[in-house]
Amino acid sequence: MSYLTPSEIADFTVNAGVKKANLTASSQLILGILAGAYIAFGAQAANMATHTITDAAAAKFLGGLIFPAGLMLVLMAGAELFTGNSLMILALCERRITLVQLLRSWIVVYAGNLIGGVLVALLISRSGQLGYTGGLLGAVTIKAAAGKTALPFLNAFVLGILCNWLVCLAVWTSFGAKDGISKAACVFFPVWVFIASGFEHSVANMYYIAAGIFAKCNPSFVSKALEAGVSQSSIDGLNWSTMFTGNLVPVTLGNIVGGAGFVGLVYWFVYVRGSKS
User: Fold this and answer.
1) Each residue's pLDDT tens digit, 115-161
2) Which residue range forms the structural domain that includes residue 135?
3) In this structure, what CATH number is given to the domain that contains residue 209?
4) How far is 43 from 39, CA to CA, in rounded Å?
5) 1 domain-assigned
6) Is residue 236 part of a domain?
7) How far is 81 from 33, CA to CA, in rounded Å?
8) Cα separations (Å) of 129 from 126, 134, 137?
9) Residue 88 contacts by C-beta under 8 Å, 6 or more apart in sequence?
10) In terms of Cα–Cα distance, which of 85, 100, 112 is closest to 17?
11) 35 inside domain
């Protein structure tokens, strides 16, 4: 058979969770940094390709075609992504790992993802790329970041649920594929849907918001953002504090519910609970 059945994917996911939990903290951190960087590459490429498109639907459609490259790199090159690691809940439910191991892995990988995302944002800001199209890319970067930090808590939380429901389905189905092309296809379509829908991904936002904060340091980018309709109060409210309180906290909580709850626990209940395999 050229693919795994859902029950076989469930067994594979349990074993994958055990392997992830048993990685050393240093390995988890390094692989987390790589994953944060890979997701940031996808996010920046999507920004670059869409920053001159004024139609929001068209921009999200095109951005969704590009962004999945980040998750493909995570899964196929080897890295640890916090949102995908929500599926470690299956190993916990099977008592193959402890709650302490799960939380340690989530915390260390999340920290690594944050370092990787902010690092790429810093490098992009220093590369001069945000000055593309007369600084329009910098302005669009500020606009996107300010919009994310201004989301109401409940909205950000629910958008986080919807996002990681899809991301973990992408990871789940990729586990069932046995060749690279199939894995890429499994990742591509669910991630395209989440980007085109405008859902919120905590690790991607580590790049998007950090890049906006760095772009805000350039007065010409701020001027362009104001011309694009971003309010001065929204720009003033874009900072490292609101990156967490206004976005990452509710989105991360939503991502956990969407991935661990709507995918991990559901499939554990259906395919693994009480199984003697």
Assistant:
1) 999 999 999 999 999 999 999 999 999 999 999 999 999 999 999 99
2) 6-272
3) 1.20.1080.10
4) 6
5) no
6) yes
7) 9
8) 8, 10, 8
9) 17, 20, 21, 97, 102, 105, 106, 264
10) 85
11) yes
Burial 52-63 (b: 16+ CB within 10 A, else e): eeeeeeebbebb
Q: 255, exposed or middle or buried, with CB in 10 Å at 0-12, 13-18, 19+?
A: buried
Tally of structural domains, the chain: 1
Alpha-carbon distance 261 to 104, whole Å? 19
- CA dihedral (192, 38, 208, 251) in degrees, to 10, reads 70
Helix, strand, coil percentages in the chain from 3-state DSSP, rounded to 5? 80, 0, 15
Against a cut of 0.90, is the pTM above it? yes
What are the tokens at 113?
A: 């993802």
* Cβ count near 119 (within 10 Å): 17
Considering the domain boundaries, does residue 277 fall inside one?
no
